[in-house]
Amino acid sequence: MNIVFAASEVAPFAKTGGLADVASALPKALKKRGENIKVIMPRYYQINPANLEKFSFNIGVPMGKIGTLWAGVYKTYLPNSNVEIYFIDYEEFFGRSGLYADESGYSYLDNDKRFIFFTTAVFELALAMKWNVDIFHFNDWHTAAGSALLKYRYNWLFPKSKSVLTIHNLEHQGIFNKNAFEYLMIDWNHFNMFEFESLGGCNLLKGGIAAADMITTVSPTYAKEIQTPEFGFGLNEHIKAHSNKLVGILNGVDYYEWNPKTDKLIPFNYDIENIEIKTKNKLALQEKMGLEKNEKKCLIGLVSRFARQKGIELIASSMEGLLHLNADFVFLGSGEKWAEGFFSDVSAKYPNFRVYVGYNNELAHLIEAGSDLFLMPSLFEPCGLNQIYSLRYGTPPIVRAVGGLDDTIENYNPSTKEGDGFKFWEASKDAFYNTVKWAVDTYYLDEGYKIIQKRGMQKRFSWDKSAKEYEKVYKKALNG
Ligand code: ADP
Ligand code: GLC
């Protein structure tokens, strides 16, 4: 199949979260299976054009009343693959310090223009390159409106093409002033409460869901959850109405990047047969973060965006109890300012807690390798990748049983020694604290800890398997 895959972030070129990991790993897996897939993303100005091939032509991107904007095009390959990736270049929109927001965390006010422009450019590029396209695959709100563009504006130019929309996170829907709808240049009759309209504003994800030929989300449980008021962010009924075209496919892991045996970003490589070497990474992590070097003491890691989704309020409100456990904590993350400030204050006052505020891939790998337990108490989690990385690194995760966390982690059963992590259900301080305490006690007292550690290391979440599921979805889209 000929597939064009559009995403607002693709690792390693630009990344704020798991979307970038998926947008890199899934196309590679599909290509390996023989699909003809091309990836398209914006050229944010952090991406150095010197390393890219520049095309001699520009593409015209019609944007309603602001007229046609002319974009440059660059190309290279996803690392360690022969997957072509194209970059849409337009300084006014992408020549900024952040992907979606400025340094203070404020979303850019013209994100509607920026991403409708990018989404439209996907079609204009495909036309300029004379690509034969079976499937346009869009991801999250940034490119969601692409399915409506295909159905109502570019259909006569791509009469046989179908669209697939993957929802990685329903919390962010791309809701703008009604005027944003004009940039799409589709008929105003699609601005209604069953398509783009949401309380008077223009909701790009909502319109995309309505128009997509197939919709996927990144775990089977999340596909069910988003049809309920608790997880639906106001779109649960809308999604229910389109549930006949919705499929949940679990993300895989790029074991080329996340494998303790070969990981170049950690000081000491290890695997099941020499798991004792993991302790050396722990000592390195303790030293790096200014914790007491102590190979026996339980070390709990966290790598996360500091966002409500990730359960940071639950952690903050349980902090006193956590600090009294016989354990050290290493947190890596950035996001909400109150959380950055709060964790930094705790880090300055307590010898058993350290935080690194910012984005640091190398430290993320060291935390996976050096910790004894990994914390992921999300309020909701479409899939989640870090808990899966933790399994591979022999770092049993402590998770709330939602979305992909529920689908990927099996709760420890002390009597049978089955399972590979520690789960809680209720989003309450007590449930959370008691589970962390249970995990710490297990670490010190129970031989079961070592058993689940090894079991997790043996589990595999292969992209090849998920890619096969995506192929089924593409076929379904094509066959109606
Ligand atoms: P989400 O996409 O919701 O943030 P995921 O678990 O799917 O959650 O993916 C998060 C990805 O981002 C992982 O690859 C994780 O290692 C990475 N990550 C998150 N925060 C940081 C950070 N501060 N530094 C480095 N990597 C981070
Ligand atoms: C989103 C979700 C996360 C998921 C990632 C990749 O950012 O929050 O759970 O793993 O997308 O699909």
Beta-strand percent range? 15-25%
CATH topology of the largest domain: Rossmann fold
CATH homologous superfamily designation of the largest domain: Glycogen Phosphorylase B
Our count of domains comes out at: 2
**What is the tally of helical segments?**
19
Number of DSSP strand runs: 19
Oligomer: single chain
| Known CATH architecture of the largest domain | 3-Layer(aba) Sandwich
What's the CATH first level of the largest domain? Alpha Beta
Structural class, by secondary structure, is alpha/beta
- Biggest sheet details: 10 strands, mixed
Bound molecules: adenosine-5'-diphosphate, alpha-D-glucopyranose
Query: Kindly, what is the distance between the CA atoms of the first and last residues, rounded to a whole number of angstroms?
Result: 15 Å
Helix-residue proportion: 25-40%
Overall morphology: globular
Structural description of this entry:
Helix content is 37%, strand content 19%. The model has no long low-confidence stretch (mean pLDDT 97). α1 (18-32) crosses α19 (463-479), α5 packs across α7 (204-211) and α10 (278-289) crosses α14. It is globular, with a radius of gyration of 23 Å. The protein has 480 residues and is α/β, with parallel strands linked by helices. Strands 1, 2, 3, 4, 5, 6, 7, 8, 12 and 13 form a 10-stranded mixed sheet that branches. The longest helix has 18 residues, at 111-128. The chain folds into 2 domains: 2-252 and 463-478, Rossmann fold (3-Layer(aba) Sandwich); 272-458, Rossmann fold (3-Layer(aba) Sandwich), CATH 3.40.50.2000. α16 (403-408) links the parallel β18 (397-400) and β19 (422-424). The chain contains 19 helices and 19 strands. Bound molecules: adenosine-5'-diphosphate and alpha-D-glucopyranose. Adenosine-5'-diphosphate binds at residues 17-19, 21, 303-305, 332-334, 359-361, 364, 383-386.
